[in-house]
Amino acid sequence: MTVTTAPDVTPASASSASTDPGAGQVWQAVKGPLTVLVVVLLAGLVVALAAGGPTGGRLDPRSAAPSGSRALAQVLGDQGVQVERVTTSAAMVATTGPDDTLLVVDPDLLAASQVAEVRATGADLVVVGATAPGRYLPGVTAEQAEPGVRTPGCDLPVAQQAGAVDAGGIDYVTDDTKLRAPNLCYAGDGRPSLVQVRVDSNLVTLLGPSSPLTNSRLDDEGDAALALGLLGGHDRLVWYLPTAADVPPSAQKSFYELVPDGVWWGLLQVGVAVLLLALWRARRLGAVVVEPLPVAVRAAETEEGRARLYRRNHARGQASESLRAGVRSRLGNALGLPRRADPQALVTAAAARSGWSGADVTALLYGAAPADDAALVQLADRLDALEKEVRRP
Fold it and tell me: Does residue 277 form part of some domain?
């Protein structure tokens, strides 16, 4: 038996029937989301550039922004105080000595080992806005409070000279059994927002509000006098701005450790609620109910009706492609080919099994649409003959 190998077949009818989206359809689908994404990115870039502002951030001695402290640093410099800005614990340890004042901004960012380094410098320590003040001054805890103008209410000379200042925000609760002769100033509801204690030969000052140090509030009330009095006691002030990147690797926490326990409990409750809702709304399947159809239509009548529709509309191309698609599917199953077998593989296998030439099988399975009804009938007969030859034992 001589088998003629048919050329590569990529029929137009098969490609046109593909359900894979084209490039135009894909672009139409993603055009809207891409446009929104580009607009959001451009808007974020514009906002970032507009908000860039001066160098530095909150309580930064170089920043001229309202929340910065450039004005205070300049006044201190005019009074002969050398201001040294550091952002790492290594630079802080190398720069700070016993005859200096050390200002710690954002003290809650420091790990325990960094706090120990701060306390070991021997400098007079001023800590601003600590919510865990016991790490710097044992026996003190913090509570949130309403900000406002307060009077000193203590005998501390610096506070007496400054008078009323913007205080509050963070108040402190002290344990008198652990503190020796503390100065408790600017109290609200009995809780001071400034605590100063001498530890050994050094002063440790906890200042709850940060507003007296900022550019926007420095000239309000006695804020400037209080800030200059607390920070200008020595010829040099080390201004320590900790960053999260400076935390030692051993003290860094994972994302899951940073999430409060209450969040996990909340998520668990939400999950249980969703599960209960799903059980409540789920479809309850009972016994199968047999329901007679209103009209019984035989399969043959359905096929005849479709055929009449094809004939009325002269849709010989669609009719022939429907016949060919059915035969290709059945031949593929009979020949053991995969569902999406290559047309060339189907032609070769069908020709080898039937003894027909590859060219004839190709024309029959992937050829052009019939020109008239007679040709369509002839095509159906030949397709039936090919299928019988392939299935013949």
Answer: no
